[in-house]
Amino acid sequence: MIRPLLLPAFALILSPLPGLATEALPLPVPELASQARDPLAEGLAAASLRDWERAQAAVAQAGPVAADIIEWMRLRAGEGTLTDYEAFLQRRADWPGLALVRSRGETAVARSITPSRVLAWFGTRSPASVEGLLAAVKAHRALGQEQEATKWLTSAWPGLRLSAIDQQKVVEEAGPALSRRDHEARLDALLWEGRNAEARQMLPLVSEGWQKLAEARLALREEREGVDALIAAVPEALARDPGLAFARFEWRMKKSRTDGALEILRERSSAPEALGRPEVWARRRAVLARGLLREGKAAEAYKIAASHHLSRSAAQADLEFLAGFIALRAMKDPARALSHFRTLGDSVSTPISVARADYWQARALEDLRQPEEAKAAYTRAARHQTAYYGLLAAEKLGLQMEDTLVSPPPLADWKGAPFLGSSVTEAALLLYRANDPANARRFLLHLAEDREAAELAALGAFALEKGDPHLAVLLGKQAAARGIILPGIYFPDPGLLPEDLAVERPLALAVARRESEFRADAVSPAGALGLMQLMPGTAKLMAEKLGLPVDIPALTRDPAYNAKLGSAYLAHLAEEFGPSIALRAAGYNAGPGRPRAWITQFGDPRRAEVDVIDWVELVPFEETRTYIMRVTEGLAIYQARRTPGAPVAITGLLRGAARG
């Protein structure tokens, strides 16, 4: 039951919104905002100008939640007294973005003269700002707790972001509590993280040897002239520094001196201590290993991939997979590959990654002639049919698509759901009406973080029924990362795409879901627009080809228009690449020139003699490899809803019509 105190806000959403028919899927929420002097909209406009007095006045009669939305923004902007921060955090402890509220509140904490109040603010949290650190240190010292003050200084010092003035404040307050070794540790951390200006500020605080080491690392990172002389000037005791080795490695990579970079990487990959920070080397390590694999140097590629010295992380999982793939497919060593795939399986938890580990374990077990164990691994992978590798496993076993993916259960009834009783939900609804869908989604995604499957399904249904399929997909992905699959919101068909498209509608849906997550007004940093993320030049060409008016602003206003042009481009790609989704998706993501080059390099995946699964794995760009996989997942699921009962056939989608 909805709590009475929230009824005014929910009266807005439980009854039809302006222009919204509740029985039909509406236009996206941003189009639904009431423009008739919405008080929160006026408050948000004033807040954007940091006119907090006018912002607060605008929402004075709009209720406590609207008032606290403005207060949330004001405090996140660093305004307010310590009392303001304390009261808000107590009142809205379940709102999103509180880490920034607490961080900004440290400025107010620094103005407090009561040591116990200062320390109560932090509790067990470390300060996130120089003001907070100095306030905590002074409070401990005022209470005679010098050891605690020193502990806070030494733990915060390496990572704090500091101007030259702030650095001087900390050094003066710290006194002997920060040693030269502490300063060297901070300098080293700053150099690893590429924070060059802050690193330079530290030079007067370290030894002459460390100054020379830092100058060499900085010169390499900035690609300055004279790096050889600066490297030679580093004292012998510091010449083996892992950070210097990485700077030299990066410099060689940027200069396309790949052989020299490999020489450093091989030498340094003997132990984690020699790498210093193995995770910083990981991205380049994968690139080099894949390059060696493409050159036919499988054994060397394997050594580079396998000697990563990483603990559990996304980078470790990717390199374990890559080492296993090289061992299995290029070195024909399934036992070695199986070891890597099992390590991968022990390191991951999301459906996509779990399915990848189990699928490739099955492939290795097949090569080891262990059919029962292979079947068991394929079966485990096939439990995840929303994932590319799970679908490959299902195909191998001759399975049909799962019933819940083909015919998703009806949308949940959200009208009595517990989340309606939360001030977080009320804030989101008010933000929608004030035409701030980005923050509205932020509130609802935060609300979903700890909800169970039934309430997540209700939230997703709410998002779809109220016209925000983008939020529905985000909720579906958030749930899937926790192992909760909600097919109707994870792979929705929100009614944004017309039926009369130049390609099959399931493909257009799969691409739109991947490109914008069904956000009709999306604009990428590169300038791609709308539902299917079209560049203006491509949109113009497709509009002219279809005989439609060229209307670039409509790409983010009219999802049907966008879908027609995006689908026309997919059809255009099919003229060259045929029905192969591997090639068409690659062309849509990376441009048609890339798959043309890859056909020359790796073979034509449409041909029977080319292993299309290997072909996808050999695509050099991680973004494009992932793109092909995610579009293929969506296409398989949306197709199955139109033609239920057919066996899963992923390799057929990837390959398209076979060529002799």
Automatic annotation (TrEMBL):
Q: Which domain of life is it from?
A: Bacteria
In what residue span(s) does the Transglycosylase SLT domain sit? 502-605
Output the CDD domains linked to this UniProt entry: Slt70-like (cd13401)
Q: Which InterPro entries match?
A: Lysozyme-like_dom_sf, Lytic_TGlycosylase_superhlx_U, Transglyc_AS, Transglycosylase_SLT_dom_1
Entry keyword annotation includes Signal: yes
Biological processes per GO annotation: peptidoglycan metabolic process
Question: Which region is the signal sequence?
Answer: 1-21
Record-level Gene Ontology MF annotations = hydrolase activity, hydrolyzing O-glycosyl compounds; peptidoglycan lytic transglycosylase activity
Going by the UniProt record, its keywords in alphabetical order are:
Signal
What GO cellular-component annotations does this UniProt entry give?
Answer: membrane; periplasmic space
Keyword Signal tagged = yes
Membership in a protein family = Belongs to the transglycosylase Slt family.
Q: What is this protein called?
A: Lytic transglycosylase domain-containing protein
Name the species this protein comes from. Falsigemmobacter intermedius
